[in-house]
Model the fold of this input.
Amino acid sequence: MPASCQFATGVHFLALLSQSPDSFLTSNEIAESTLTHPVVVRRLMASLQEAGVVETQKGPGGGVRLARLPRQITLADVYQAVQTSEPLHLPHTEPNKNCPIGQAMQGILEEIFTRAEAALTNELARTTLSDVLESALARHRAHSA
Amino acid sequence: MPASCQFATGVHFLALLSQSPDSFLTSNEIAESTLTHPVVVRRLMASLQEAGVVETQKGPGGGVRLARLPRQITLADVYQAVQTSEPLHLPHTEPNKNCPIGQAMQGILEEIFTRAEAALTNELARTTLSDVLESALARHRAHSA
DNA sequence: TTTTTTGGTAACGATTATTGTTACGTTTTG
DNA sequence: CAAAACGTAACAATAATCGTTACCAAAAAA
Done:
């Protein structure tokens, strides 16, 4: 299967919005910048809106903009808003009920997954959209120079 | 696509091996305990063998056993051995080359992914197979009582 | 009020990764 | 040499993502 890149795509979209936090960008504009389809933009933005990261405005002059300042939005916010599938998964099939290990395994793995994902989001929470935008502009300057 | 559960499956297999670190288990035995197919066991064990976590023995009396003591194998070892796809992914399509943000995005995201996955594996490194087996047996006792 | 411009969302197909399965080769033991 | 195990290629079924089309709803402007 294609692995989900919604987090990467979401960060990209939001970095674009961070350039002008006060104005709306249309899904067409964002789709052109990222070479994807406007419906893909709207789909992902729907999740981000539900999480309170962006707000949308219909009709002429409308579009999407950040709901908070770039420095108030962390990558953990983005991750939790858009990540549909978690990085670690239980098997779909139930284990053998006669096996003591198998019976206990599911609960143990869930605990482990919870701790591991907490570690992941804690790290993501250390970076804000403002950091991302700054890095992007710095890289651009370095590359142009 | 079905999300990969190789890490969960691997931990389960290795917990079984941890019960008797000195003896070989056949892929048939492991497959029965976990209600999966022997080829699935062998496939996953091949990765774990390449990583030096288990060793195999062909022929009668053969099978798979741990290459080190359970307390010397961490879940980070398992994760790094079997995780084919990473939890975070870049988009497959290249971004717009005319966009300063898009150009820089890929490198920035790679840095972020590296830090996030390091945080994940650091957390996984805190748990050993010995811990997992102990938790499993404790849960089994609690459930039986 | 009508038209235009936007987002919202359902539905479908192409693509792709995972898993289970079969089949067959290889190695080791006895 | 026979039997028991792993090693691995190949294929189908399943499932998830993404792009795309189509159409609705809402808001602004004419």
In short: The radius of gyration of chain B is 19 Å. Residues 6-144 of chain B form a domain with the Arc Repressor Mutant, subunit A fold (CATH 1.10.10.10). Chain B is about 60% helix and 5% strand.
